[in-house]
User: Fold these one by one.
Assistant:
Number 1:
Amino acid sequence: LPAVVDSFRFSNVTLATISVGACEIVRTRQQAHSETGFVKLIWRLSGALQVDQDGRTCILEAAQVAVCDTSRPYRIRLLEKTSFFILMLPYENFPNWESMQARVCGRKLAEGAITQAAFGALATLANFSSDAIKADGDIVVRAVQWMISTTFHKNCGDVDEAVPTDGRIGRARRFILSHISDPDLSVDAVAAALCMSRRS
């Protein structure tokens, strides 16, 4: 099946732009071992695209993104000539991935300014030459990763209803989630915001 693929690797992250005719991409349990340990984000650019994982199905419209965990079977159906981005990041790029995966895999991420900004950054990056992408791509992809991490946490806002919303733990949780995309977020920053020692 003829396909046009442009692929780039930035340290432990892979970005690909793919354009292909109607087909099905099926990842079985046996094949999943070759990609194990990655979060796969699929952004539709044009055409018709459907993502299935864990008994859930989502159909993407333009600029919408779906999520797959590569360690488990999934299917991507392209119902006509379709163009899309694939962004693959290792689990360790998303703290608490194990607790989030059941809420985001096989589903569309919530739309909003953050998701659209991430998509816009990737779309802009894809329009540059290979040399420009190699020079600046790592920074752009890191920014997209922070935005996606924030979106994951927004999608999973009620994933742990047992965590209190008041008191120190609740305040710490709210502060962390509201600053999750900040690369300078640290234990010291959380301690300072809550007026407590690092050890506490």
Number 2:
Amino acid sequence: GTPTMGGILILGAILVSNFLWADITNLYILICVFVTLWLGITGFIDDYAKQLKKRSKGLGIRAKLFSQVILGLLVGAFLFLNPRVSTQLDMPFLKHLQFELGIFYILLVTLVICGSSNAVNLTDGLDGLAIGIVVMVALSFSVLSYIAGHIKFSQYLFIPYIEGAGELAIFCASILGAGLGFLWYNCYPASIFMGDVGSLPLGGALATVAILIKKELLLVIVGGIFVAEAISVILQVGSYRMRKKRIFKIAPLHHHLQFIGWQECKVIVRFWIIAALLALLTIITLKIR
């Protein structure tokens, strides 16, 4: 009986906040808004099919993945053809090590957007779990975006200076604020669920920010919980198809921990603690360089 599709409220808060405080002519803001809306519509169609049309599988895995791949290819191709955007892959912890990806940059963008949006979607299985971690990731990327767009700070910390990227700090702050507002009602026991209309665009939005500020690999660190959840599903499905045996009692990982006796609140809070430590580690990487 708990209402779902609360992600509409999150997206509304994000879009209104950016309209009021961000430079809506900024290219990076426009790209992030485009990705958020695209995945928001995809998630809305999926939730609509599940809740109102009573289709248990909703839009379907293949249809959702197709939408994400098309989005990733569009964004990747646009960035690749934009002379202002570097196609180099920046390495965390190392000052001068970068890899030129060329045309493969499009594939990287597609992989990051698809992987992140699905990982957040898989993590959204316990009250407040996914949105609490999203808030921490958004806080980290807000700091990183501001530094990447500040010529003096970026030079001092030996990270690529990206003109106009500072505006993404506002976009990330809007995710932070909207997430906190939603968490008030989504914490255990939840009064509302976000649904795919919230989890898919939030994951895609964070991935897009990571791409635009050249912190694609740091997304793996700061979103370590999301990565672990996604890997647990991949391993479970792969193991069952190849060996007819399961690695976990049930996937994703948070349900496995519940199955072996952890209380829901304990899983949520401990995952939040790990996410907070990973967010702190991500910011520390600036100085380690």
Number 3:
Amino acid sequence: MGASVEKKGSQKGSEFEKLVGEAFKYLNFEVEQLGQGTGREPDAIIKFPEEHIAFIVDAKAYASGYTLGTDDRAIKEYISYYCPKLKQGGFNKIGFIIVSNSFKTDLNDLINEITWTTDVKRFLQLTTEALLYLLAYKTKDKLTLSQIIETLITFNSVITKDRIIEEFGDY
């Protein structure tokens, strides 16, 4: 859906954000949907309370792939607002996830800055295909949320379906 060119703008973005949130629910995260219509907000906060883990999620529905523009300012605002709230709520492992059909630019400078200067421990770039493959492996192989998170946080670049297949294909 993120790659769709049939729907435009906010309608496509809103639908995509909801579906991304649903996918994380199926992975067994607690999902707080935010996003479109709620002001300048990330699209979701996903939590795994048993292990004190939370991620701020921003879903990007761009037909030609996500490229970092002025979004870095918004990402930093989300982090500065939500990290203290999450820490107050007992979450001491906080990450940030951008979900998009593809990534056109290298986000390494932004990722390094954020993980060095904020409470965000991991910054993940996750393709929508990779997210769907995670759901398939979770369903087929009964992966736990702990196993999924442990694997995701080991990746240092864009998480694609091929990387998910490589990691979970032999389960």
